[in-house]
Amino acid sequence: MPHYAHSLPDNPDRSKWETLQQHEQAVAKLSASFLNRIDVELAAWGELVGRWHDIGKYSDDFQGYLASAGGSDVHDSEISGKVDHSTAGAQLAFGKPSPLGRLIAYVLAGHHAGLPDWDVATGRSGLKQRLYKKVPNWQNEETKELEELEIPQTIPIRPPHTRETFCRHRIGAFRVTFLTRIIFSALVDADFLATEAFMSPSQSIERTNSIVGMSDLSDTFAEHLADLRSTAKPSPVNQIRDEVSEACVNASHLAPGLFSLNVPTGGGKTLASLQFALRHAEHHGLDGVVIGIPFTSIIEQNAKVYRDVFESLGEGVVLEHHSNTDPEQETTRSRLQTENWDAPLVVTTNNQLFESLFACRTSRCRKLHRIARRVIILDEVQSLPVELLTPTMLAIRELVESFGCTVVLCTATQPALHWQQDFAIGLHGIRDIVPASAKLHDRLRRTTVNSIGPLDDGELVNRINAKNQALCIVNTRPHASKLFAELDYSESNFHLSTRMCAAHRINVLNQQIRPRLDEGLSCRVISTQLIEAGVDVDFPVVFRDVCGIDSLTQAAGRCNREGRADEGNVYFFQGERRPPPGTLRMSADHGLEIARHYNDLLSPEAIEAYFRLHYWQQKDRWDFRQVMDAIGRDPSCMEFQFRQIADRYRFIDEEAETLYVPWMEGEQLIHRLSESEFPPDRKLRRRLQRYSINLRRHEMAQLHAAGAVLPFHGYATLTQRHLYDEKLGLVLLNADGVVPPSDLMC
């Protein structure tokens, strides 16, 4: 009798079921095609892992489970411990004479539960333990051909750069782990797609892409830029933007690799970088573009621009993948695309992009093979965390040198990541898209930075109140709320921080702050750093609490942004409170050090000196999270701790807990959540996300202790409305257990 991979719900007719041979051949074909795009040598690896991945399903145990499962998701069966069918393939690969069998063993062992650690001393989940685990017998007449397949003898691992001064063995080990994830990604995506095609053909059809190539996107974007130019008024700024655009067009024909687009705020970097990316991808036959952005506040405004530009090309061209995606913009197609990034233009966060490159779970790794052979734009690249620099730099190198990517490092400051004699992990061969001779920093300068030293809160508030329009940026949420409370009570004063949910912040920005600025009305804003990251506002005066010079440059980009005044003023001050320990304090200390030696804090010389302190002379912090230790030094033994790598490579070290708050529509959404006897569907979850705040565990515990939180279907919701202020957002200081009568009323 034939052996089966999948049954059908409520259909006992086995002639309609999918056989193992049908499934393994479909997966092998898909995974081989995915990897062939990257390198023809990898196609054989994709073929092999596709043929071997489900070999354990030939066991009588699994076939019996399948017959009794009634069409339930057999992929979940292994995770829940009912049937282990993936260890068999790992053991087969490891038993082959090739030393590369262990690489395949990782891929096969993890194709449902995720890439395993090599050794887990306290359990049985490590690959080392599973290779000697007793599994149900799967060998029979049907498996003989599979057992005879051989492992390819070579893998396309590039040697380290000839100028390499960093440990060559570590680079070798890193490259093997990276390649393992890419092969794993191709297998996992192929397995999901092939299973979906059989189990849910209607959903599989939803994935079908219209034929939109890079030339279509490039031509459409060129038309958009031409329309903008035809309506733009002649000005020095627009002339510079035209020069930047022309430089991007000229550089787009250069060979793929590493590029730097160093353009000050206001120079048209956002549109110019995409122009380069689309033309470059079209010219070199690359598969698409990925745009990585530090914060969701920029993504939302940029993605809307991209959607509007490419609307005529149909659905599925622009994929916006981040936590605050507007649910009204989500479709069935875009939801499916977020699973594997099968879209020509992906807009995401640096967090999502880089953490995926080091992930171990199937859901996060599935997209990785589609990142290969793309243009990757890294916006505000100088914001990459120092504590993860070594693995991050190696990942960027690997994308370029082994996986056919072009990476564009976008920054409004001097490039920080070039290889230097004292920065051994820096990037080699970066080409500047805009020549230094253009002197854009001098020509686009519209502000003067005044370093005014220590300033207590009272004097700072007096200075802010004296201005008709002013922005003050401080380092912590408590400091922002305290300063706001001390301002004159007025409808002209505003507060922004992540204590406000995303929908609240967007409302304040779009409905209150921006209109007042445009109309010349009084407008004073106290904000945390969130406003620095590309938020399009224009103040004549900006106060910035002590910070890194890169952050100061971003703050200056909110001052006289449109050049309405002859010159804007940025006041760099030292507030009453030092920034909290960690990255913020280290950046601030380095910023103060530069301020002692340079009068012009935005000069290229001052910025270079800052990066020397902040990046290049921080060797002990380049791998502070010890990601490289989990990878190891010896690529030949392949004793990789994939789960430890994923746990250690996190942009945000502490896991945040999500709280949903009853602001505006959020109150009705929480009511729907509380009244339903079923868990929320995806659309309700996505809508709720815009009314959420991330809290540290001790902060959530404080709210629980005050009786201010109720969980509905596992989702924490704020039940005491008085704790959410219309100006400040969540006010934890008021969580004392005393509930006003208004919160008790229906």
Automatic annotation (TrEMBL):
SUPFAM superfamilies in the cross-refs: P-loop containing nucleoside triphosphate hydrolases (SSF52540)
Organism classification: Bacteria, Pseudomonadati, Planctomycetota, Planctomycetia, Pirellulales
Q: Which CDD domains match?
A: Cas3''_I, DEXHc_cas3
Q: Which family does it belong to?
A: In the N-terminal section; belongs to the CRISPR-associated nuclease Cas3-HD family.
Query: Domain Helicase ATP-binding, which positions?
Result: 250-432
Pfam families xref list: Cas3-like_C_2 (PF22590), Cas3_HD (PF18019), DEAD (PF00270)
- Keyword list, A-Z: Antiviral defense, ATP-binding, Helicase, Hydrolase, Metal-binding, Nuclease, Nucleotide-binding
| NCBIfam families the record matches | cas3_core, cas3_HD
Name the InterPro entries for this protein.
Cas3-like_dom (IPR054712), CRISPR-assoc_Cas3_HD (IPR006483), CRISPR-assoc_Cas3_HD_sf (IPR038257), DEAD/DEAH_box_helicase_dom (IPR011545), Helicase_ATP-bd (IPR014001), Helicase_Cas3_CRISPR-ass_core (IPR006474), P-loop_NTPase (IPR027417)
Q: Which residues form the HD Cas3-type domain?
A: 13-193
Q: What protein name is recorded for this chain? A: CRISPR-associated helicase, Cas3 family
